[in-house]
Predict the structure.
Amino acid sequence: MAGFAAFWREIPSYIDPIFFRLGSFEIRWYGICYFLAIFVSFLLCAWRVKRRETTLTRALLEDYYFWVILGVVIGSRLGYVFFYQWSYYSAHPLEIILPFQFDGGVRFTGISGRSLNVRHLTVLHRPSRQDIRA
């Protein structure tokens, strides 16, 4: 069992984080996972709305997923800044909100990290009785 545990710990060192590369354009595994998670959960929720298993409407569901995607993007950036590179970004605070780096030319650095719980989004938009009946 100790051999398996050692093997399991070393798996990340053998996996390339880049799924696809075309020149300087890269698609990473975590981006694919985020996309698939949001896309599949939206399809499942839309299927439940269509079957009338919930009181949500399609429009309200789309509003929720807009906020989910926005929360993932903002939360990912802030998580990366605060948990992994705080010493750098505390010295370069403008780069927290700009997804570009300016050293050696301008380049897009992307976003990694955290997500926002959908439950918190209900505080932003509480459905009215008209939304539920529509």
